[in-house]
C-alpha cells in the first residue's frame, strides 16, 4: 500500500486534470455560443421587412421563353403573394465522401436569393453526430460544424467558399420561385422546348442555371457550373453540379421540389451523389 504522503501529488494531479478539462469544455461552450449568436444575427438580417407584396399574375411572365412561362404558371398559383424569402425544415440523408455511408439529416434553412442563406443542420446519429451551419450574406460565405456540438471539425471561409456559396444560393432559388422572376433581375434565355436558362446575379457574379421543365411545367432538374473542390487534387474549379427533382409539393400557393437528389459532376460517370433532402415544412415570407 502506498504511503499516504505519496497520494497527495496524485490527488493534486487529478484535480489539475479535472480543472483543465472543465476549463477547455467551458471555452468550447462559449465558442459554440458565439457561433450560434452569429448564425442568429445572419438569420435576422435575411428576414424580409413586413409589408404588402405584389401578387402573381400571368402577365409577369408573358414575355419569357415558353418553357420558363410554363414553369412559372405551374410553380406559382395566380394571386399568390410574391415571397422574398422562404424558410424550410428538412430531413433526408447525405454523405461526405464517395463510398462513405449515408447519414441522417435534420436541418432548417432561410433562403433569400440573391441576398443570402443560412442552413443550420445536424448530421449523423446521436451521440456521434455533428452540427453547425453554412451561411452566405454580404458577399461572404462560411461553414462551421462541431462534433458532439462542441469539438470543431470544419471551419471554412474565404473567397473560394464564398464563390461556391453563391452557386448554391442560385441553385436553391428553385425553393422560392418568385426569386426567379424577371422582375427580380433574373435574365431568361430560350434553350429548347423542354428547358430554359436563367441567369441570377449574386453580389456581382452571374450564375447560370439550366432548368429542365416537363410539358406540364414541373421541374425535372437544375444544372449549373458551381465552384467547388471535388477534384482529384482538391483544388477549386468550376464543376458541373445538378439536382434531380424526385417529387414536388404544393405549399401556400407555390409548387416546389419536396424531394430531390443532388451531386457534383452531375450528368457524368464520376457523379458524386451526396444530398437527398426531404422538405417537411415550408413558410414563405
Keywords, separated by commas or semicolons:
23% helix; outer membrane lipoprotein receptor (LolB), chain A; alpha+beta; 3 helices; 285 residues; globular
Q: What would you note in describing this structure?
A:
- The chain has a single domain (31-284), classed as Lipoprotein localisation LolA/LolB/LppX (outer membrane lipoprotein receptor (LolB), chain A, Clam).
- Strands 6-5-4-3-2-1-13-12-11-10-9-8-7 form a 13-stranded antiparallel beta sheet, with helices on both faces.
- The chain is 23% helix and 44% strand.
- The protein has three helices and 13 strands, in the order H-H-E-E-E-E-E-E-H-E-E-E-E-E-E-E.
- 34% of the residues are buried.
- The chain is globular and about 85 Å long.
- The chain is an alpha+beta fold.
Topology:
Layout: H1 4-46, H2 66-75, E1 86-94, E2 103-112, E3 116-125, E4 128-137, E5 140-147, E6 151-157, H3 159-171, E7 187-192, E8 195-202, E9 205-213, E10 219-228, E11 237-251, E12 254-264, E13 272-284
Antiparallel strand pairs: 1-2, 1-13, 2-3, 3-4, 4-5, 5-6, 7-8, 8-9, 9-10, 10-11, 11-12, 12-13
Widest β-sheet, arrangement of strands? 6-5-4-3-2-1-13-12-11-10-9-8-7
Percentage of β-strand residues: 35-45%
> Could you report the average pLDDT, rounded to the nearest whole number?
92
The CATH homologous superfamily is called Lipoprotein localisation LolA/LolB/LppX
Q: Which value, in Å, is the CA radius of gyration? A: 23 Å
What is the chain-wise order of helices and strands? HHEEEEEEHEEEEEEE
The CATH class is identified as Mainly Beta
CATH topology: outer membrane lipoprotein receptor (LolB), chain A
- Percent range of helical residues: 10-25%
Detail the poorly predicted runs: none
Count the DSSP helices.
3
Count of discrete domains: 1
Which geometry do the CA atoms define?
globular
Class by alpha and beta content: alpha+beta
The overall strand count is: 13
Q: Can you name the CATH architecture?
A: Clam
Amino acid at each position: 500500500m502506498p504511503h499516504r504522503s505519496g497520494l497527495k501529488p496524485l490527488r493534486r494531479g487529478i484535480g489539475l486534470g479535472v480543472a483543465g478539462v472543465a476549463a477547455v469544455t467551458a471555452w468550447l461552450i462559449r465558442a459554440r455560443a458565439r457561433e450560434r449568436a452569429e448564425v442568429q444575427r445572419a438569420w435576422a438580417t435575411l428576414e424580409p421587412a413586413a409589408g404588402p407584396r405584389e401578387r402573381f399574375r400571368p402577365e409577369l411572365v408573358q414575355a419569357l421563353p415558353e418553357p420558363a412561362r410554363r414553369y412559372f404558371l405551374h410553380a406559382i398559383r395566380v394571386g399568390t403573394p410574391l415571397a422574398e424569402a422562404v424558410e424550410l425544415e428538412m430531413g433526408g440523408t447525405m454523405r461526405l465522401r464517395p463510398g462513405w455511408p449515408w447519414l441522417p439529416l435534420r436541418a432548417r434553412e432561410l433562403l433569400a436569393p440573391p441576398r443570402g442563406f443560412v442552413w443550420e443542420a445536424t448530421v449523423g446519429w446521436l451521440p456521434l453526430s455533428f452540427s453547425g451551419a453554412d451561411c452566405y450574406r454580404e458577399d461572404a460565405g462560411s461553414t462551421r460544424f462541431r462534433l458532439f456540438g462542441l469539438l470543431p471539425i470544419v471551419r471554412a471561409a474565404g473567397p473560394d467558399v464564398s464563390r461556391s456559396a453563391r452557386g448554391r444560393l442560385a441553385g436553391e432559388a428553385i425553393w422560392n420561385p418568385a426569386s426567379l422572376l424577371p422582375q427580380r433581375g433574373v435574365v431568361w434565355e430560350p434553350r429548347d422546348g423542354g428547358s430554359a436558362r436563367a441567369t441570377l446575379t449574386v453580389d456581382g457574379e452571374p450564375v447560370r442555371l439550366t432548368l429542365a421543365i416537363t410539358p406540364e411545367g414541373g421541374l425535372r432538374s437544375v444544372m449549373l457550373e458551381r465552384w467547388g473542390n471535388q477534384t482529384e487534387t482538391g483544388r477549386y474549379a468550376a464543376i458541373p453540379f445538378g439536382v434531380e427533382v424526385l417529387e414536388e409539393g404544393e405549399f401556400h400557393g407555390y409548387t416546389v421540389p419536396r424531394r430531390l437528389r443532388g451531386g457534383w459532376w452531375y450528368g457524368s460517370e464520376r457523379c458524386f451523389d451526396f444530398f437527398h433532402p426531404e422538405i417537411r415544412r415550408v413558410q414563405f415570407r
